[in-house]
Design a protein that fits this description.
Layout: H1 3-32, H2 37-59, H3 71-91, H4 96-103, H5 106-118, H6 124-141, H7 150-172, H8 179-199, H9 209-233, H10 238-241, H11 248-260, H12 266-291
Helix pairs in contact: 1-9, 1-11, 2-3, 2-8, 2-9, 3-7, 3-8, 4-6, 4-11, 5-7, 6-12, 8-9
């Protein structure tokens, strides 16, 4: 398989992952009204572990569970735990579209880090698309106007750095580690972090059938999303696939309006349009690149 074909497969997996993650985020935000971040992470994790146990058994990967003890796997699990804790906590204080837009800083970081760690060549056109996406993010965040609590913004930005570090780590994992095992480690990390956070939070609240169903569905979507994000980052060029995170903002806006009634401001909509345009331009450049290979 040529690198161009690997990149195309990675792009499809990335877009799928973003759709799955934003559905999970919507469900988590619905539960966030009733539970704190720790309880959500712990309960979702227990459902997720059940799903992954069935998945691993069906895929025949149970015999490779010992691979989760490798240092890079443990490190990736710790990063997933930190990302989930920061993001879910911030999600309780920010609209879905706005916090999702902040996460779109990750492609800028990943593009720069891909040049450093993997020697990937990034032309000025692709850099321009990433910078345009960054400017769009600034319109969404509107720094300095006090639209969101400072601690929530800091947690959202911490999630950005965590996502960049996680994807770089994923790219460096050996190919003999099954993707499902990596996804399992993600769930283990977030579950353990949720249990620890819940000990210092507001205390566990009743688990109603409705909330259990919401969190079980979130666990399914986040498990599928974790699998897809690993598949997207394993052998594709990160500087190519990362900008396709931008498609998530469209779904975040739509679900934010339909589910929570959160209408973005005109400035935020302009920023979201810039973010989407940068992603589409990157797709256009990748098609041209494939034709020349």
């Amino acid at each position: 398989m040529s690198q161009a074909q690997k990149n195309l497969r990675g792009i499809v997996a990335m877009m799928l992952a973003m759709g799955l993650f934003v559905i999970n985020d919507t469900l988590v935000k619905m539960a966030r009204v009733h539970w704190d971040a720790g309880q959500i992470m712990a309960v979702r994790g227990l459902f997720g572990l059940t799903i992954m146990a069935v998945w691993l058994r069906q895929s025949g990967a149970l015999g490779k569970l010992n691979l989760v003890l490798r240092p890079p796997m443990l490190g990736r699990g710790a990063l997933e735990a930190a990302i989930a804790a920061a993001f879910i906590t911030a999600l309780g204080f920010m609209p879905l579209a706005e916090i999702t837009a902040i996460l779109m800083l990750a492609p800028l970081l990943i593009t720069a880090l891909s040049m450093i760690f993997f020697g990937e060549k990034v032309g000025w056109r692709r850099w321009s698309a990433v910078v345009v996406g960054f400017l769009g993010m600034l319109l969404v965040v509107r720094p300095g106007d006090g639209a969101f609590p400072l601690f929530a913004l800091l947690l959202a930005f911490a999630s950005v750095f965590g996502v960049a570090a996680r994807d770089i780590t994923t790219r460096r994992l050996p190919l003999d580690v099954p993707t499902a095992v990596i996804a399992l480690m993600s769930i283990i990390g977030t579950t353990l972090a949720g249990i620890v956070l819940s000990l210092f939070g507001e205390g566990w609240r009743p688990i109603t059938p409705q909330l259990a169903l919401i969190i079980a569905a979130a666990a399914l979507f986040v498990a599928l999303g974790n699998y897809s994000i690993v598949a997207a980052c394993r052998d594709a060029e990160l500087s190519v696939v990362s900008p396709f995170r931008y498609v998530v903002i469209i779904w975040a806006v739509l679900l934010g309006i339909l589910v929570f009634g959160d209408w973005p401001t005109p400035a935020a909509l302009a920023g979201i349009a810039l973010i989407g345009a940068s992603g589409l331009y990157t797709l256009h450049r990748e098609r041209i690149r494939q034709k020349t290979q």
